[in-house]
Design a protein that fits this description.
Elements (H helix, E strand, L loop, with lengths): L2 H26 L5 E5 L5 H18 L3 E5 L6 H8 L7 E6 H10 L10 E10 L2 E4 L8 H10 L4 E5 L5 H13 L3 E5 L3 H10 L4 E4 L1 H9 L4 E5 L26 E8 L4 H15 L2 H10 L2 E2 L4 H21 L6
Parallel strand pairs: 1-2, 1-3, 6-7, 6-8
Antiparallel strand pairs: 3-10, 4-10, 4-11, 5-8, 5-9
Length: 325
């Protein structure tokens, strides 16, 4: 046989064999437990979103989906872990929007890039609540802005950490309202909320699961929610548009990502399972009780959202000269 013909046939046979192996791997997925990495400690919106869908995904995919909390370094530890994991769909990331679109601008060397991850599916979105300690003489958002302007540099605001949405979002709020607020970073929502409730800091912008229960009991005063419509957990609290700040509507999201290079068939299979989970009445009910909203979005739509949000928040981070390093 002619050597060139032999080599050509050999190459073709190898290609077919490799394709067959890849197809079999995708069709057999999953054949073992899946790890869902959360870049935060237990509690909070990201952990809640991951646990919201893990049981349903376990039933749909036929293998355990185990939630693993890997907090630290503003999420970078978890993102590095998943970006370096095998590209087989068995290690996934419950990504928090502030980390995903903000960290590349906040850190000189975060140890990962957006190109290391591939979008799989949206999980939930959550509005933010602008809340203050009741000791402040402000009954609504307009009164708070007026008070802040008259008392520049005297109001402290808490955040879950440098670079978090509560940090960058409140910096944007101060920029838009021309107020001077003092940032006090914490390591997570728990410690931040403790000092807000104690009055050591006066302002906190966070998600309904964190703020809602305290606002309902009067321990905090909710001034506005950043969604387009009122939140069911706080139906008497106006939206920022209703409160006179229509262009301020930052919302957090949590979405599923896999290591870049994960077979598309596997990505699509996970995405379909997530859609099934999010459309389940039981999941919708649990989400409503936790103050978060399930949101179905295809991998392509999620990728477009990441691109748009990255451009938006990187500009805000640069304008406010926010840096973590």
């Amino acid at each position: 046989m002619n050597r060139k013909i032999f080599l050509s046939k050999l190459a073709g046979s190898v290609a077919i064999a490799v394709a067959g192996i890849g197809g079999a791997a995708a069709s057999d997925y999953p054949s073992k437990a899946i790890t869902l990495v959360v870049p935060n400690p237990p509690g909070g919106v990201v952990d809640a979103a991951a646990r919201l869908v893990s049981d349903s995904l376990t039933k749909t995919l036929g293998q355990a989906v185990v939630v693993e909390n890997r907090g630290g370094a503003s999420g970078n530890i978890a993102y590095q872990t998943v970006s370096r994991a095998p590209k087989d769909g068995y290690t996934l990331l419950a990504s928090y929007s502030a980390y995903h679109v903000g960290n590349p601008s906040l850190f000189k060397k975060p140890g990962w890039s957006q190109n290391d991850l591939v979008p799989v599916a949206m999980l939930v979105k959550a509005a933010n609540v602008i809340a203050v300690h009741p000791s402040l003489p402000a009954k609504n958002l307009a009164e708070f802005i007026s008070y802040a302007k008259k008392n520049p540099g005297t109001i402290n605001y808490a955040s879950q950490g440098a670079g978090s949405l509560s940090h960058v979002g409140t910096a944007l709020f101060a920029q838009m309202t021309k107020t001077q607020l003092v940032h006090v970073p914490y390591k997570g929502s728990g410690p931040a909320m403790q000092d807000v409730l104690g009055g050591q800091v006066q302002l906190f912008m966070s998600t309904p699961p964190s703020v809602g229960p305290h606002a309902q009991t009067g321990k905090l005063r909710a001034l506005a929610v950043t969604s387009k419509t009122r939140h069911p957990m706080l139906p008497d609290v106006p939206t920022t548009a209703e409160a006179g700040l229509p262009d301020f509507q930052p919302e957090a999201w949590v979405a599923l990502f896999a290591p870049a290079g994960t077979p598309n068939d596997v990505v699509q299979k996970i995405a379909a399972a997530v859609t099934t989970a999010l459309e389940s009445p039981a999941v919708k009910q649990r989400a409503e009780l936790q103050g978060i909203e399930p949101l179905v979005m295809s991998p392509r739509e999620l990728g477009a959202l990441v691109k748009a949000d990255t451009a938006h928040w990187s500009r805000i981070i640069q304008d406010n000269k926010i840096s973590v390093d």
